[in-house]
Amino acid sequence: MTTHDITNRNAPSDRAQSGAAMTGAFIRRLDLTTFRNYAALRLDVDRTPVLLAGANGSGKTNLLEAVSFFAPGRGLRRASLPDVARLSDGVSAPGWAVAVQVDGSHGPVALGTGLEARPGGAAARRAVRIDGEPARGQAAFAEHMSIVWLTPDMDRLFMEGGTARRQFVDRMVYGFDAEHARRLSSYEQAMRGRQRLLRDGVGDTAWLAAEEESMAAAGVAIAAARREVVARLDAAIAAEDSVREEPFPRAGLVFEGEVETWLDVEPALAVEDRLRELLARNRSRDAEAGRALHGAHRSDLAVRHRTKDMPAALCSTGEQKALLIAIVLAHARLLGLARGAAPVILLDEVAAHLDEGRRGALAERILALGAQAWLSGTDAGLFEAFGNNAQLLDVSSGRVSAC
Questions:
Q1: Is residue 201 part of a domain?
Q2: Residues 337, 202: contact at Cβ < 8 Å?
Q3: R_g of the chain computed on alpha carbons
Q4: pLDDT at residue 105, as a whole number
Q5: How many Cβ atoms sit within 10 Å of the Cβ of residue 47?
Q6: What is the pTM of this model?
Q7: In this structure, are strands 87-88 and 91-92 parallel, antiparallel, or unpaired?
Q8: CATH number, domain at 271?
Q9: Most CB contacts within 10 A, which of 160, 316, 346, 377?
């Protein structure tokens, strides 16, 4: 197994390193068909931030979710694909579709995805298309644009279990290496297969060894990618001008775990061998526990408030929110420098939880990134800091119009 070298493959250009203003991939048009509360929608926008104002339940988050399906995974809600289809009189549509016209990293392109109904009662399947032609998977979208997001569900990121933090880091890694999603899928499939064999008492050691080999190979690659991206982000945040720290405090980040500790002192192949041997030795313990007690799924993200030298979990609710925003914006900037184009940023109901000063700082930083950001909020007044530098849209019962 060869560990992916994200740093070298995505090294910033001299122009990016010099601090010159970036431009980003942006969506020109969004089309929805039987998606959530939208029977059909065509929305034309420009490269400036897209501000979505409307009452709760009007469909603002649904628009952000639609865009998020062009990143690896199941979108910002992590919904099952059939659940996204529009309900009418209690009956779900047989499928749904989202399409975007993008000015991307390689020029204009049409991207499409959705759940396609199939004839003869066959199970519906996910479609992925680029310029109308089928693509192998969502990783292909990453060649044209990257997407980052922040949602209200992430507000308790520092207080909850490690699963949410691992998923948060994995989304950051996707922007640098879309194949990370495939490795995660391989790892989880192997881990489930191994646990099923242990649960059923299958004595075929060769079969168990094959699953452990897959877990070790994918798990070390996953750990190495997470560790590298978090380290790069931590260094980028540390290098920021301390004068700009307020009102968004600088975070200190480290991705911690058994495998990551081994990678600090051993090459990846040696760590693979070590993890594979550990899994083999602990089969009886894992069978009794009902889960694997070692591996990449046990690692976690540790975050500290740099100035206070305090764990994020012990900070106030407001400080935690500000730290989270700061991390997402720093990631967007780092991703933009690495790719030469800022990502699309999705911020769901973020401004509502910020005071006027932080709303102004948020607008300033988004505009400085040169990114097309999509923000939702119940009150258009939350977006005053953008002035004339954004497009304000009213969302009402599945309809979208200019304010």
A1: yes
A2: no
A3: 22
A4: 75
A5: 16
A6: 0.90
A7: antiparallel
A8: 1.20.1050.90
A9: 346
